[in-house]
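Milestone 3.1: sequence recovery, worked example.
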């Protein structure tokens, strides 16, 4: 019987296509890789036991990325241009789930992403945590490559 071990969720890399900084690939959390089919409900004339549901289009929630705060990077410049100067420049983002040899097992290609929110964690003089920045991205859709 062949052994199969599911991949670990802590070995991944995030790449913003067009940004070459290695610092901009190091995130601690990625959330929101979800596709959901939207539906439209139509009441059936004369049939009161149920409502017909018809598919409409896929919906993708916003992608949330978290990492330790970096002061000056290409990604920070892009976020500033989009959020503060209203110069929206959609970018593609690749999220690679890596194996033990650091090669991609699966890759999610996120298309047309742009920032909708940026925040930093709370400061607490009584704590000993690092400052974490969160980046929320809206995007059009994603595709998946299974290596």
């Amino acid at each position: 019987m062949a052994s199969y071990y599911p991949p670990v969720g802590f070995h991944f890399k995030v790449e913003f296509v067009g940004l070459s900084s290695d610092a901009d690939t190091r995130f601690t959390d990625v959330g929101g890789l979800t596709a959901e089919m939207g539906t439209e409900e139509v009441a059936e004339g004369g049939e009161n036991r149920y409502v017909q549901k018809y598919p409409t289009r896929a919906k993708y929630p916003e992608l949330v990325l978290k990492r330790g705060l970096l002061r000056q990077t290409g990604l920070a410049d892009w976020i500033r241009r989009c959020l503060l100067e209203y110069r929206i420049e959609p970018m593609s983002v690749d999220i690679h789930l890596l194996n033990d040899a650091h090669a991609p097992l699966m890759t999610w290609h996120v298309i047309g992403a742009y920032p909708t929110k940026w925040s930093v964690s709370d400061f607490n003089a009584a704590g000993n945590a690092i400052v974490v920045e969160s980046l929320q991205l809206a995007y059009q859709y994603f595709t998946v490559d299974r290596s």
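The longest strand covers residues 104-120. The chain is about 5% helix and 45% strand.
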